[in-house]
Design brief:
This protein is of the alpha+beta class and 132 residues long. The protein is built from three helices and six strands; from the N terminus they run βαααβββββ. The C terminus is likely disordered.
Length: 132
Amino acid sequence: MPKHLINITAAAEQDLVQIVDYIANDNPTAALKLAEEIECSILQLEDFPLIGAIPKNRRLTQQGYRVLIVDSYLVFYVPLNNGTVEIRRNISGKRDYNFFIITSMKTFLVCKGETLQDSPKSRVSCMITLIE
């Protein structure tokens, strides 16, 4: 079975940068470890796109969302019919996540699953693509 393509929305990428920056202020090692754990969890979706839990929120469930739990963080994503898994948000499990229900997105970061050599914040190499 071919691997699923992982797309990360700009919002999800920004969420991850903010999470890592916040943690890095107190503990850079812990921030890097969390970024690696989130990356590993997301990359598992290439082979197993349905491993995430179904959210309790009915609206998110109706929109096809699933959620990965990584430490105390939630990675919200949607497996699409075209063999793509779209990562939509990364948020703290302590936050109310109803604020982010997304109905349309145009800018995505298309991840190639490669490691960046020069960035401690983002370990997945991505490029910006506009979806019309």
